[in-house]
């Protein structure tokens, strides 16, 4: 068992933030923790990493309690940027943590290069952008090649290029056997990363394989929209029109191309959108017309 979260309760004053949270991670994969602002995601990650104590409940990581002194050889938590020191360089931070963990200079350089921060690691953190700070925090987190990596909003503040790099790195780490538990607000990013979602609702976990909710939709522009609409619907492919675009869901796009080509219809543009998480998110959090997504227990 990689991670076992058992019957965790946590309140702040009268506010019950986590109410009997239980879930288990048994195999290396990416698991996304999703919930509205204030639903308790950071609190839960902080409890898992033993930064905050729960009121009740128990966490085990690789079979040991999460307060075991050796646990942090195998687990890393990407903290938020308040842990960084403005007057130190990125390299100073890496060297400091590297010294504590007995990590070689070569490994520090290799990891910084892997994350893409080697070119500015000798600059002071005061000169870093938000994205550069995120890169440094990620480099610090993966320095000891953890088996379980916990990331709180890792894509926050990243421009599209950096977000793609981090996403690719996360996928690479998982392919090497690392388990990644991450929280994110960015549902489109989650769709690209994983099918395994933990929804945090009213202090409790709804643990789901999102693949059954996956929807792939295509937005297509053709040279003759009326004829294309008629032709596709006639072929049994449910197609709708909005403005100058056709919309088709959950279909092998190759079939659509073949039908259009056979009928001498030309595709001018095509856009593909994958959504599963967002659709399920709405079902979970906006049920019964409840549009107040803020969690209260
Ligand atoms: N130290 C604290 N003292 C009192 N209340 C707290 C404390 N930390 C968190 N809370 C409250 O607990 C709730 C959950 O906070 P938490 O930061 O875990 O949520 P979150 O899901 O991570 O939110 P966000 O997505 O906005 O980061 C919020 O209502 C927050 O105000």
From TrEMBL:
<dbReference type="InterPro" id="IPR051782">
    <property type="entry name" value="ABC_Transporter_VariousFunc"/>
</dbReference>
<dbReference type="InterPro" id="IPR027417">
    <property type="entry name" value="P-loop_NTPase"/>
</dbReference>
<dbReference type="GO" id="GO:0005524">
    <property type="term" value="F:ATP binding"/>
</dbReference>
<dbReference type="InterPro" id="IPR003593">
    <property type="entry name" value="AAA+_ATPase"/>
</dbReference>
<keyword id="KW-0813">Transport</keyword>
<dbReference type="Pfam" id="PF00005">
    <property type="entry name" value="ABC_tran"/>
</dbReference>
<dbReference type="InterPro" id="IPR003439">
    <property type="entry name" value="ABC_transporter-like_ATP-bd"/>
</dbReference>
<protein>
    <submittedName>
        <fullName>ABC transporter ATP-binding protein</fullName>
    </submittedName>
</protein>
<feature type="domain" description="ABC transporter">
    <location>
        <begin position="3"/>
        <end position="227"/>
    </location>
</feature>
<keyword id="KW-0067">ATP-binding</keyword>
<dbReference type="GO" id="GO:0016887">
    <property type="term" value="F:ATP hydrolysis activity"/>
</dbReference>
<keyword id="KW-0547">Nucleotide-binding</keyword>
């Amino acid at each position: 068992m990689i991670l076992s979260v058992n019957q965790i309760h946590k309140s702040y004053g009268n506010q019950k933030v986590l109410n009997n949270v239980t879930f288990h991670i048994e195999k290396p994969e990416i698991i996304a923790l999703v919930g509205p602002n204030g639903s308790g995601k950071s609190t839960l990650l902080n409890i898992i990493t033993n930064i905050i104590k729960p009121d009740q409940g128990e966490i085990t990581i690789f079979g040991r309690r999460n307060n075991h002194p050796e646990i942090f050889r195998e687990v890393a938590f990407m903290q938020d940027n308040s842990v960084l020191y403005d007057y130190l360089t990125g390299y100073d931070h890496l060297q400091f943590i590297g010294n504590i963990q007995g990590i070689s200079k070569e490994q520090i350089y290799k990891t910084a290069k892997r994350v893409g921060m080697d070119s500015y690691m000798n600059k002071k953190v005061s000169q870093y952008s938000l994205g550069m700070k995120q890169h440094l925090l990620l480099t610090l987190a993966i320095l000891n090649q953890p088996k379980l990596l916990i990331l709180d909003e890792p894509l926050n503040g990243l421009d599209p290029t950096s977000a793609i790099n981090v996403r690719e790195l996360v996928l690479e780490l998982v392919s090497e056997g690392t388990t990644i538990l991450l929280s994110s607000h960015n549902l489109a990013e989650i769709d690209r990363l994983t099918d395994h979602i933990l929804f945090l609702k009213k202090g409790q976990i709804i643990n789901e394989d999102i693949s059954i909710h996956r929807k792939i939709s295509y937005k297509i522009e053709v040279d003759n929209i009326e004829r294309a609409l008629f032709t596709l619907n006639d072929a049994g492919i449910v197609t709708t029109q909005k403005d100058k675009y056709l919309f088709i869901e959950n279909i092998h796009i190759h079939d659509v191309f073949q039908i259009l080509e056979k009928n001498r219809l030309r595709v001018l543009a095509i856009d593909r959108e994958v959504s599963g998480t967002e659709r399920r998110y709405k079902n979970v959090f906006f049920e019964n017309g409840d549009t107040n997504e803020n969690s209260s227990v």
